[in-house]
Fold each of these.
Amino acid sequence: MPHDVLVLADLSISPFRIEWLARDLHPWDRDLSLELRTKLFHEQALRDTETALRRLFSVFPGLEQIAFRVLEPAAPSRVIAAGNVARGEFEAADSFPSLRMRLHMMGVRMAAAGGALEPVAA
C-alpha cells in the first residue's frame, strides 16, 4: 500500500536515536479474533523494525549504531520493541533464518505479543 508508512515520533542525530509508531493493522484484518489480530500486529511491527534498521544503515553508511524504540500506534503508545543496534551486529545477524532470532542477535528487546517493554515517559 503506497501510504502505509511508519510515523516518526522522535529523532536525534548525535547520538543517533529514533522512535517511530508501529503501523496499525490493515482494515481488512480488523474482523479477525483479538488473539490473531494481536499476533499479526506484533509480527508486522517486528518485520517493519528490521526493514527500518536495514534502510537506516543503508541510507547512512557512516552510521555505526542506532538506538531506537517502536511505540504502539495508539495511546498510551507503549514501547513494543527497543534496542541499541551496532552495524556489525546487524550484519552478523543476517545469517539467521528466523526474524525473531535475527532481532535478538542484534540486541533488540521485544515485548511479547500484546505486551509492552516499558511505559513511555510523558
Amino acid sequence: MKNLLARISYNPQVCHGKPCIKGTRIMVWQVLDLLANGLSPQEIVSEDYFPDLTVDDVYACIAYANRLIKDEEFFFPPETLGAVA
C-alpha cells in the first residue's frame, strides 16, 4: 500500500491543496466519484475519462480513501441509527 500512497500528492498551489494523483491536477475525489458511479478502473483510465492515469493510480485513490477512514470512529445520533440512506 505504501507504493500506492506515494502516487498521491498535496500541494497548496495545486487544486487548492486537495489530494491529487502525483504530477497531475486530477483530484482523488474525482476518481472516487467515478468509481462510486460504477465505472471500472479500466474505464477511468480510458480516453473517455483520464487517459493520463494508470490503473495503479486508481488503486492509489482507493488506498488513500481507505487510509483516511480505516481508524476513524464515527458517532451517530441515536435517532439516525438504522436510517441508512
